[in-house]
Each structure stands twice: as C-alpha cells, then as structure tokens.
Amino acid sequence: MKPNGLIIYDEKAMDILPPDSHAEQLVAGYQFTEGPVWHPDGYLLFSDIPANKMYKLEREGFATVVLDPSGFTGKDEAGLSEMIGSNAIAINSKKQVIFCQHGNHAIAALEENGFSIITDSFEGKPLNSPNDLVICSSDDIFFTDPPYGLKDQMLHPTTHQPRGGVYKIKDGETKLIYEGFRYPNGICLSPDEKHLYVSSNHPDEPRIMKFELTKDGEIKGQSIFIEQNADGIKTDRLENLYLCTDKGILVVSASGRRLALIKLPETPYNIAWGGPGKSTLFITASAGVYSFHTLLKNH
After folding, report:
1. Are 245 and 252 in contact (CB under 8 A)?
2. Half-sphere exposure of 31 (CA within 13 A, CB side)
3. CA-CA distances (angstroms) from residue 9 to 17, 226, 261, 292?
4. Is residue 299 part of a domain?
5. Does residue 136 surpass a pLDDT of 70?
6. Is 188 a member of any domain?
7. Is 274 part of any domain?
8. Per-residue model confidence as pLDDT tens digits over 87-96
9. Model confidence over 24-82: pLDDT tens digits?
10. Which end of the chain, N or C, is more open, meaning fewer C-beta atoms within 10 Å of its C-beta?
11. What is the Cα Rg of the chain in Å?
C-alpha cells in the first residue's frame, strides 16, 4: 500500500492544505472508481467503469446504485475494452446530472427512468469513449473523447473518430475544438471561466494544455501550461490546479509552480470539490473513494 499524507514543496501550500492532513477512505471494494461530482443536494456521485454502474454516496461506508447499466446498454462488446461504463459526471445549472458513457460512445443526461442521449457522434461517426467533461455557467459542455473504451484502448478510425478530440456542445451542436492529443483525458475550467485546461495521461503526451477563452467560451489562444501527465484535473477558487498523477494529487499554482503532493494509499484518477463550502476534495482512486479536507472555501 502506498503512503498516505502530504508533501509540501512550497510554503504557500500551507495556506490551503493542513500539513498534518491525510486522505480518509469513505468506501472500498470497487473495480475502478472514476468521475466524482458533488450534487448540490448534498451527496457524491461516482462511477465504477468496468462494473457499468453509477453510485450515490450519502454517508461514509455506504453507497447505493443510481444507474445500472450506466455506460453501455448494448449487447455486443466486441469492439470495446473492459472499460464500458459511465465515467465523469457533472451537474448543470438546473441540477441535471450529465455524464460520459464509454460503451455507448455518448454524453448523456440522467433521467427519472434511465437516461437520454445528448450527443453520440461527430461528422457521421460514433464518438470514441467520452471520458471527462466540464459544464460552464451557460450550460455549454466541454468534453474529452480518447479511445480508452474501445478495443485495445486504441483509435479505430474506420468505425469511430480518427482522433482523440476535445469537443464543445452548445445549443445542441457538437463542435471539435482541439485535436492535439491522441489521448485527451482530464478537463476543467478556471473559476472565472477564462481558461480551459486539458490533460493527457499517456506517456507520449506529458503535458497540460491551457486555452484562453472568450466571453462566449470560444478558444482565442493556447499554450502548454506544464509538462506533466495527469488523469482527472480540477481548479480551486485561486486557480491552483489539482492533478491526479501516479504519485498522488499534484497541486500546482496558477503560474505552474509545484506546491504540494497529496499522497494516497491508491492511485487517484479523478477529483471533485464538495461538502460544506466545497472545501473537501473527494477522490476516486482505484477500488475506493477518499476525502481530503483543505483550508480553502470554494463556494
């Protein structure tokens, strides 16, 4: 088991992270947890991708199934990897649950009796396996579409998309906004929605991209923010970035300076702010879900 605790690289980290804090396990025993989001009604949602289920965590040690199956509702898994279920989850301004479906190649909305599809194709071909998403204040959706849910976790351009794209859904239209990654992964917005960050966790693409956005959410500039692999990523209200890496959660300042590393017993794959004041990090990490309390109020 990996060590659990905090490594400080810069004293400014002490303003946001308690030096003696550590991650607390909330639930365990899952196959591969991912995609956490804090619902405004006061609970956490998360996915177990290979189990093809979405869960609701209301209290420590107890989670219930919200959607089963959550990401693949077909019968033929021949063209898919074992990662067939739902992945990232987000909440829009109407408190509607929006989520990524690997096996259905879709972005979907949770409904009372299942789900509805928002988008599942681009230019006449199915999407690969939507992985992560973020919703801005206008309810436009940005999402990443790597091939992790496809057979051998590779692109299959004859049947699906020829690229691992980053897309935007606005007014029902799906638009490709970036194709510089083969395996785009984590995605998040800055608090003022002036910047969009996108990561790759593939060793051939060790970088976090930073995009400048217009008031309408269109890209007007881009740069490499930091050379680092990461899975899920999030910002706090100061625009520090929290990056899920194989070493733990790397905390980086808005200028790209490494501040701290949150060590966990398992490898973290995604994170969400939640709890009172949104000051707690909820972390999906392999077989479990963890919490880590910070000093920063994000709401």
Report:
1. no
2. 15
3. 12, 16, 8, 18
4. no
5. yes
6. yes
7. yes
8. 999 999 999 9
9. 999 999 999 999 999 999 999 999 999 999 999 988 789 999 999 999 999 999 999 99
10. N
11. 18
Unique residue bearing structure tokens 């929605």: 193
Structure tokens at 238: 């100061």
Q: Of 45-49, 61-65, 176-180, 279-283, where does mean pLDDT reach its minimum?
A: 61-65
pLDDT of residue 1: 58
**Domain enclosing residue 107, as ranges:** 5-293
**Burial (0-12, 13-18, 19+ Cβ within 10 Å), 189:** buried
Closest CA to 272 of 288, 258, 257, 290: 290
Model-level pTM? 0.97
Task: Count how many domains the chain has.
Answer: 1
Q: How many CA atoms lie within 13 A of 30 on its CB side?
A: 30
List own/partner pairs for 276-282 with CB under 8 A and 24 or more apart.
278/38, 281/234, 281/242, 281/249, 282/26, 282/36, 282/38, 282/44, 282/46
DSSP string, 222-273: EEEEES---SSEEE-TT--EEEEETTEEEEE-TTS-EEEEEE-SS---EEEE
Report the CATH number at residue 222.
Answer: 2.120.10.30
